[in-house]
Amino acid sequence: MADCETRVIIGAGHAGGRAAEAMRQAGFAGEIVVIGEEPHVPYERPPLSKELLTGDEGPDKTFLNPPEFYADNAIDLRLNARAVRIDRAGHRVLVAGGDAVDYGKLLIATGGRVRHLACKGADLAGIHTIRTIDDSLSLRPRLTEGARVVVIGGGFIGLEVAASARTRGAHVTVVELADQVLARVADPAVGDLVADLHRSRGVHVMTGATVERLDGNGRVAEVICTDGETVAADVVVVGIGILPNQEIAADAGLEVANGIVADAFGQTSDPDIFAAGDVAFHYNPILGRHLRLESWENAQLGAIAVARNMVSDPQPYAAVPWFWSDQFDLNLQVVGAPETWDRLVTRGDPETGRSVIFYMDGAHVCGATAFNQGREARPLRRMVESSAAFTDAELADESLRLRDLAARGD
Ligand SMILES: Cc1cc2nc3c(=O)[nH]c(=O)nc-3n(C[C@H](O)[C@H](O)[C@H](O)COP(=O)(O)OP(=O)(O)OC[C@H]3O[C@@H](n4cnc5c(N)ncnc54)[C@H](O)[C@@H]3O)c2cc1C
């Protein structure tokens, strides 16, 4: 068994990279090994569907740190290396090719992998997904002026790709199964506002549309829906969500549900193994439940908190979930993760492009979406976190500043 000073991280993505850095910043002097299957140093994914697609720069700006950072900080970063098994009794991670790495404490930060379409034609050439730098760079040259791009899935990533493709001059159709876009995360009213923005920019948004098959002679040429509607396609981008990479944990006998079950400290059912980022089904003390988040902030601050817990005095990680999205010139700030709400309250006129929609549970704000009001994310989070009561009238009253209203919860 390793000396207990060794910290091993599986996954050299956003959470894994930040966790290694945070361990060093917390003063941890022992060995840190990061095992990552991708060829790149740890990087942030939000630009992959935005700036990396619309611009023509290389991927360096997405890197969390320059490549030399890892050697400079005595972090043993092993790229192109896939962890295949965790031997809990031996405190050891087995890597494809035969290597084994001993650990004292282990962090699993394996993120997620894209879901693929299961229909006929799903393996034709010209069908893309977006999760990695390489995915984004292989799609980018296909998003040309006049290209017919069909995006399957009207979630955040699908819509961001649609906006980027349209910005590059492509003809874009979004095909969404549900009756609204952003169905998994937003009220229909919010989804409709976002769909309207896309339509106003020339994107053809189809909702309630089920893809039956993809057709083409070796290369995709058409998307055919069950109602018979056919959309011509030079390129198809599938954005229908991810599956958490939790198998390595399940195979090791760790508790898994929708992700690897972890407490508020990031600790799994094995006290020497932790989980962070998209793969963690972690306990959120503010919401009082477990949830799995797919967000930059959770991969950043959540992973930093868990990393510190692995090297120093444990502190629970408690934050109101927060996510942003950029589509055309719309910046969306999504606060909270409400499962139910009894009504919405709108502040500001959505027609102007600047508004906030509150999700209400009685007098409590349980979530909010801000349109082009980036600076309001902080007070909105305070409102969701607090148990303060608000009336619909005061929330809608733009003469009252949100930060003053939010201070009521202090
Ligand atoms: C295109 C795109 C746009 C996004 N935009 C936004 C946004 O605007 N706002 C926002 O808040 N969030 C956004 N996100 C979400 C955010 O980027 C993710 O939540 C975050 O990247 C999760 O980090 P992670 O480290 O948990 O997982 P990942 O970044 O996926 O990293 C996991 C890493 O582990 C590796 N791995 C998996 N299994 C193994 C194994 N067995 N051995 C070795 N390595 C392994 C994977 O290859 C991967 O490199 C976006 C995500 C994507 C894909």
What does this protein structure show overall?
- This protein has three domains: 7-113 and 242-311, FAD/NAD(P)-binding domain, CATH 3.50.50.60; 116-238, FAD/NAD(P)-binding domain, CATH 3.50.50; 329-409, FAD/NAD-linked reductase, C-terminal dimerisation domain (Enolase-like, domain 1).
- Helix 1 (14-25) runs parallel beside helix 8.
- The protein has helices spanning 14-25, 51-54, 68-72, 133-139, 156-167, 188-200, 247-251, 296-311, 377-385, 392-396, 402-406; strands at residues 7-10, 32-35, 75-78, 83-87, 92-95, 100-102, 105-108, 112-114, 127-128, 148-152, 171-175, 204-206, 211-215, 222-225, 230-232, 235-238, 242-244, 256-257, 259-262, 273-275, 280-284, 289-292, 322-327, 330-335, 343-347, 355-361, 364-371.
- A five-stranded parallel sheet has the order 3-2-1-7-20.
- With 410 residues, the chain is an alpha/beta fold.
- The chain has eleven helices and 27 strands.
- A hairpin with a 4-residue loop joins strand 4 and strand 5 (92-95).
- Helices cover 23% and strands 28% of the residues.
- It is globular and about 60 Å long.
- The mean pLDDT is 96.
- The site of flavin-adenine dinucleotide (FAD) has 37 residues, from helix 1, helix 8 and strand 23.
